[in-house]
Amino acid sequence: MSEDATPQEAWQAVDEYLMDRLVAEDEALATARESSARTTLPHIEVAPNQGALLGLLAQAAGARRVLEFGTLAGYSAIWFARAVGESGRVVTLELEEQNAEVARENLARAGVAERVEVLAGPAARTAAELIAADTEPFDLVFIDADKPSNPEYLAAALSLTRSGSLIVIDNVVRGGHVVDEDSDDPRIHGVRRVIEDISANPELDATALQTVGVKGWDGLLVARRR
To answer: How many distinct structural domains can be found in the chain?
Structure first.
C-alpha cells in the first residue's frame, strides 16, 4: 500500500486483506451482495467481514431464533440462517416488496429459504403484529433499518426477546456525527435516542465499537438482556 494512501484507501486495503484470509464468502453470498444493486437502497448491506461477525455472534449466543429489522437483498439474513442451523428460524422485516423479492431469490439460491421468513411492510407494524401474536422470543435481534425509527425498533425488540438475548444495532457512529447533538439529520437523532434509551435501561448491558473499512467510518452496538 502506498504511503500516500488516503485513510479510506488504507481502511479498504486492510479489510480486503482480512476478508481474503478469514471470511469464507461463497458464490451465494457474493451474488446476494452484488444483487443489492437491484434494491431500493443499493450497496448499503453489511460488509463480508461484518456479516461473518454477525454469524459468529449468533453462534456464540447459541441463537436458534433471529429477528432482523431491514432485509434489503438478504445478505445478512443468509449469514444468520447459516448460523442458526437447519432447526433454527430467521424472521426478517423489509419495507419494500421489491427488496423482499430479491431477498427471497437469494435465500433460495443459498439453500436456506425454508428457515427464513421475509415479511414485507412497515417494520414497526409487522413487529407489533408479532408481539400481538405472542411470538416465541428471539435469541438475537439485528436492527439495521431506517435510523430515525431505531428507538421504536428497540422497544419492539425488548418485547420480543428474553433474558440473555442479544440486540445488535448497526450504523451507530455515522462518520463521527453521532456526537453532534445539534445535528438536523433525523438519522443522527434516531441513533442518539436509541443509545440514550439503552443507557437508561437497567435490563441491558451494552457496548459499542467504532469500525473503519470498506463501509467507511461507522460502528456497531451490542446489548444483552440481563
So the answer is: 1
